Amino acid sequence: MTYPVRYGWPEFDISPTAGWVRAAGADICALRRSAPTPSRQVPTGPQRLSDGKIGPPCYSFGVDKRADIQKLVDLVARLRGEDGCPWDREQTRETLKPMLIEEAYEVLDALDGTSPAELKEELGDLLFQVVFHAQIAQEKGEFRLADIIDRLHEKMVRRHPHVFGGADLRTADDVLRNWEDIKAAEKGTSSSSRPDSGKSLLDGIPSRLPALHQAYQMTAKASRVGFDWPSLEAILEKLKEEAAEVMEAQEAKNQARLIDEAGDLLFVAVNVARFLGADPETALRRSNRKFERRFRYVETEIKRQGRELKDASLAEMDALWEEAKKLELDSAPETPPSPSADRG
Fold this sequence. Notes:
This protein has 344 residues and is mostly helical.
C-alpha cells in the first residue's frame, strides 16, 4: 500500500485495533529514491502533495531508511516491561519532569550550534521523552502515541483554515489572531477579545515558564491587539526612564523598590528584543556565551603570565577583554539574528 507524503514527513497509519502507530512512508521526502552522493543532501525539487499542490523542496539523503517510529515505541515498552530495565521501570511522570526540561534545553543548545549531528542527537533524546510519557499513559489506560499524533494532526489542520480550507488570512498577524479564536472555540469558550468573554488574552501562558519568556509571551499577545509601543525609539526611551528609576531607588536605599525597578528595566529590555523580531532568550544566551568566551580568554592570558586573577588589576583585565573582543570581531562572520514566531 502506498502512502502520500505531506509537509516533508511520511504520513502515519493510525490503527485503533492494533494499538500503535507505524510510519507508513519510507525515507523523508525520498520514498525509494537514491542519490548519487550519500554523504550530502541532494535537492530533488519541490514535492507534490497528495492534494495536488506543491510543497517545499525535498532532499534525498542517499539512504533508503524507514522512518519507523514503531521500533522506538517497542523499545520503550520493552524497557518498561517485566524483563526490562529496573531504572526505566521505576520512572514516573514526576521523576521525568526534570529530564524533559533538561532535554529541551539541550535541543536549544544544539539549535544555537552548527552541528546537524548534534541537533539530530538532541532531538532524538527529546522524542524519547515524548514516547516514554506515551508509554506511561498507555500503561494507565489513558491514551497511546497514536492518539497523540492523531490529535496533533487534527489540531494543526483545524488551526490552518487558510491552508486546508477557504479562510482568507494574508499575513502572519492575521494567522495569529485567528489562531487564538480557534483555540477559544476548541475549549468551548468565546474569544477573549469579545465583550461577553470572561477570558483574558493572557490565559494559557504557562505559569512555570521562565520569567524572561513569560514576559515575551505576554507582551507579544498584547501587541496583537495594538497594545504596544509605536516604535523602537519609544521603547528605548522607556528603557532610559526605567534606568533612571533604578538610580532613584538606589539613592533612596529602598531595597523593595529597587527590586521592582530592576524588574521593570528587564521587562522593557525584553520588549526591545521582541520589537526587533528577536527571541530575548536566544539573544541573552548568545550574550552569555560571548561573556564566557571573553572571560575565559582573560583567565587564560593571566594564567599564562604565571599569575592568579585576583592579582590582576581591573585595567589589565579590561585590556585583555578588549583584546578578546577584537579577536572575535576579526575572525567571526556576521550572523543576523533569526526572528522568532510566537504561537501557543
